[in-house]
Fold these 3 entries.
Entry 1:
Amino acid sequence: MSDQHQPPQHQDKQPGDEYAMRPEPEYIRESYRGADKLLDKVAIITGGDSGIGRSVAVHYAREGADSVIVHLKETKDAEETKRLVEAEGRRCLVLKGDVAAPAFCREIVKRTLDHFGKINIVINNAAEQYDWDDITEIPDDQLLRTFQTNIFSHFYLTKSALPHLSEGDTIIATSSINAFKGNDTLIDYTATKGAIQGLVRSLAMSLMDRGIRVNSVAPGPVWTPLIPASFEDEKVASFGGQVPMKRAGQPSEMGPAYVYLASEESSYMSGQTLHLNGGVILNT
């Protein structure tokens, strides 16, 4: 892909609507060919209605997996993702609720088991972020909310799903480039992504003997609904220009990494992070 930028735009609510973005993100490339890498697996994907979550659901469907996509309130996006999964010949259960609530995370697991009878892959992907120039400006309730959504939900869902996972099953977290380099205006968001890295490494160690692998993907700037929902118009227009490739990534460039981490092709990998960030070199 060549250098590209998006027009100025802003959405007034988190986590944003994909159908309202211009241009809409690319969720899978026409050239992507499935090879049954995840045949008959069942995946839970939080934040599965749009952005990276939608990309993962459609890639998984093309690889033969069924998905449970969990979303907060973006019903139109969620229904479109369900349609896309079913168009690939796979099943999709849509669950609406707040992953910041432990009771709802338990409900996700119960309803997945009731519907599909098993769980093989847990994708902790849901997140929210807020742009602040000064840590003293961050409201206490927003700080708590960011941690509840971005990291507490990983604990809640993993705790609920773990008794139903077996050898060969996988847990995958969406981290961020910001966990490794910091971000001067996404302070609380970046702190949660750093916590995700600690959780992934610790959980990988604790589950090693059970044969359950835990890894993460750390995207750089990616064109998802969270971007126009987080930043003002002009910041959106220049989004992605700071990385060596001088553009934002597309969700379609993230999805295959989640396929790899969920498949047996990555069987010798746990506690690790894939960095899909437009060429940024990090000291990890």
Entry 2:
Amino acid sequence: MAYCGKCGAQVGEQSAYCPQCGAPQRGAQGDAPATGAAQSGLSENVAGLLCYVLGWLTGLIFFLVDKRPYVRFHAAQSIVVFGALHILRIVLAMMFGISWMIGGGMGWTSFSFGWLLFSLIGLVALVLWIVLMVKAYQGERFKVPIAGDLAESFVGR
């Protein structure tokens, strides 16, 4: 005899729904899950969190794979936020790294200013990374001011 995953009542082996609470049962033939979790096997909040785990890379993966609007928004926001921060750090590293090598008398000053900017952007990225993962897991559609609007335009909403 099988049991309902929601309320624990006994359910027949071929029953599509629980007679006690009406929840759909997994073992039944021909029943479709009520949520979009069957697409990727993940709930929306977990998929939203995973969009941020490796920055723009996991954002791109989830943007291409998952079609749920909530997940696509977080994936697009991850691409925009962490893609832009990644590019900015590369540009700063090239600018200040090269000026330090060529710089002569101003070399150490520009190097330390560049290192400070580079580190500050890294700190901002770390804080955003944590905040966005927590907000996505809580089911909140938290928008980073400029990047959130760009992400919504990518999603088409």
Entry 3:
Amino acid sequence: MNGLNGKTALGVILVALGVLVVLRIFGITFGPIFGFLFPIILIGLGYVGLKNGKNWIGIIMIAVGAIMLLVKLSGVFFLILAIAAILIGVSMIRGRSKRVF
């Protein structure tokens, strides 16, 4: 066996993705894991596409996966911004002249 080439890897990823979608249709979900897994799989498929010379498809899949992942992580980004705002506000109330960051 020569190992996992690009076509075989793409085939394995597509089969795994298909199984996850079918399970989700039948009501078997894995909670938030599926929500994060799908964009990561798209990014992985895009990377495999780029490695195999399918530049446009690879770029599109990476872009769509990255946008989906950013949307999923937007809550985390807003949480970080809220914590930073609290820290800066507390620092300003206390009258410190030093910056928090």
